[in-house]
UniProtKB/TrEMBL annotation:
This is Retrotransposon gag domain-containing protein. Pfam families: Retrotrans_gag. InterPro entries: Retrotrans_gag_dom (IPR005162). Residues 240-328 form the Retrotransposon gag domain. It comes from Graphocephala atropunctata.
């Protein structure tokens, strides 16, 4: 999709389609996505205006960056990061193919271009080689539509057909041509590939009100980011979908100033958390006692969540000491004789104590002797000494 590319790469794709390149990265990617949805073709006149020398220089820099990225890629599956790298490599391939070297009298520019195309193809093969491939009848992977169409070889309308306007990938063949048809590519998926879920489908909004704290919001965002295959850069670019109300107003005002997701996290805490948040949270932790009917696992989970939201991590020893003080009366009574040295030990002992409470609550009195088959072995609460036994007070032995 369009958010796979960096800002300058998106601007290039817009420029060669004769579209405006002004605006922040979010606006640019949205504009490119709309262009792809509407099957906007490459404009050869726009391509001809590009400086061939400058284009090759830029492509060499991008190759150097991508070469390092591919070397460090070690996921082993076609995850979201793989797709992003692949899209950038194919952007580079198409960009190089469009460089016009016909006016290069000495041929040096053509030589640089050809060598760079070969090396670009090589790192794409290197990237593919890091994936455990399933047995496929076709050598194609999860390829989708082309962002690298040229006026001579590629029909953009054909490449975009039926793919919902998503900016994806096409694999170059041995001649580094980009003519692969998407109809043969969209039916097979690697079992290890996890399709990303756009942020706007997460059904998660932060408005700055008290019903959802900043910490809880950011924690949930991180959970969904990992589970739904979104990179931090993509999250930053789609952050507008996460806000409403005052938080959305704040985000609009600061969107161009904030460059990374980490910076956005920090800014959110600065704006929407109280200055003495850690002190107040620590007091909340000290007052968080275990409910009478709250089981130990849920209580420890809640406490772990509270501790995780402190700026400075508290040692397990201190956590354990505080939690032991805040256990409910039943566990305080049952565990006071044990020397507990870890949270895991506390969990196991408390589980056993809670099991005892459950069993005792279901205890019933023994059956009466009158209703059992073996009354001599039944319990009798009214047992008395047999009346047939007589006591002798004195014995006369004088005779």
């Amino acid at each position: 999709m369009s958010y796979r590319l960096r800002k300058d790469e998106v601007q290039y794709e817009l420029r060669v389609r004769g579209l405006q390149t002004e605006g922040d990265v979010y606006e640019l990617r949205k504009r490119l996505q709309n262009a792809l949805n509407n099957k906007v073709a490459i404009v050869q006149e726009a391509v001809n205006k590009l400086d061939p020398q400058a284009e090759v220089d830029v492509c060499e820099e991008k190759f150097s960056d991508l070469n390092e990225v591919v070397d460090s890629f070690d996921a082993g599956v076609k995850n979201n990061e793989y797709t992003r790298i692949e899209a950038r490599i194919l952007h580079l391939t198409g960009r190089l193919e469009r460089v016009d070297t016909s006016k290069d009298g000495e041929g040096t520019l053509e030589t640089r271009k050809s060598k760079l195309l070969q090396r670009t193809k090589a790192i794409l093969e290197q990237l593919e080689g890091k994936i455990q491939q399933p047995n496929l009848e076709s050598g194609k992977t999860d390829a989708q539509l082309s962002i690298t169409g040229s006026e001579q070889k590629v029909d953009p309308a054909e490449n975009l057909n039926g793919l919902n306007g998503e900016l994806g990938i096409v694999k170059p063949n041995e001649n580094v041509s980009l003519v692969t048809k998407p109809s043969t590519m969209t039916t097979v998926r690697d079992n290890n590939y996890r399709k990303s879920v756009p942020v706007y489908k997460w059904d998660l909004k932060f408005d700055g009100s008290q019903h959802l704290s900043v910490s809880a919001f950011l924690e949930r965002v991180e959970e969904l980011r990992v589970a739904r295959g979104i990179s931090e850069q993509e999250l930053l670019d789609s952050a507008v979908d996460l806000f409403s109300g005052p938080a959305l107003i704040w985000h609009r005002s600061n969107r161009q100033r904030i460059k990374t997701w980490g910076q956005l996290r920090t800014e959110l805490k600065t704006v929407f958390q109280k200055p003495d948040y850690d002190d107040l949270l620590l007091k909340e932790i000290l007052n968080r006692t275990q409910g009478d009917q709250e089981n130990i696992d849920l209580y420890l989970a809640a406490m772990d969540g509270l501790y995780s939201r402190l700026s400075e991590k508290m040692s397990e020893e201190k956590q354990l000491a505080q939690i032991l003080k805040n256990l409910n009366n039943y566990l305080q009574d049952k565990l006071c004789m044990f020397n507990i040295s870890s949270l895991e030990e506390l969990r196991n002992l408390a589980r056993r104590a809670e099991l005892g409470r459950i069993r005792s609550s279901t205890q019933h009195p023994p059956p009466k002797p009158s209703i059992v088959m073996e009354p001599d072995l039944a319990y009798s609460a009214n047992w008395r000494r047999s009346p047939g036994i007589h006591h002798v007070s004195t014995v006369d032995s004088s005779n």
